[in-house]
Amino acid sequence: MSVMGIAQFERFFRNAASLDVDKEDLRRYNDFINGKLYDLLLLAQVAAKANLRLIIERYDLPITKGLQESIRAFKKLDEVIELQPILDQIVARPPLDLGYGVETEASLSQIAGGLSFALAQTFKIVNPTLKNPRTEHWEQAFRIFDRLL
């Protein structure tokens, strides 16, 4: 990731939850985002197959009310930070049995943004005074998301 991209992620975490992250955190973040998107896409594939379709549509993705709210919060915050173009580049599109619909493909970086916002907020919910997340904080947040998504 470019220096400009790193600076935007640092700014995002500061604005979203008053957190200071570093390059090591951004590697963890990238793994988290792509892992959670993969989980959502696997579930979407099951829904599409159950409905006898050959592509995964946007409405197949199991987007909860909370994640939808986080997507909206990310969009509002992103008007200032402009992280969306970077997410478009780093979000993996794993090969699955089914293809992606146009709307699905277009929404993946927005969903990644919503997951990002939810992750940042999770750090603060668990530890309101946290400023610099360490490995154990990241692992704790990952366990929470693994349980819920």
- Overall outline: globular
Radius of gyration: 15 Å
SSE-based structural type: mainly alpha
For the biggest sheet, the summary is: 2 strands, parallel
How many runs of DSSP E, i.e. beta strands? 2
**Tally of individual helices:** 6
For this structure, the quaternary state is: single chain
| Neighbour order of strands in the largest sheet | 1-2
Please state the average pLDDT score: 94
Describe this structure in words.
The structure is a single chain. This protein has a single domain, classed as Histone, subunit A, CATH 1.10.20. The radius of gyration is 15 Å and the shape is globular. The chain starts with a helix and ends with a helix. It has helices at 3-17, 23-50, 65-81, 84-90, 102-126, 135-148; strands at 55-56, 99-100. The chain has a two-stranded parallel ribbon. The chain is an all-alpha fold.
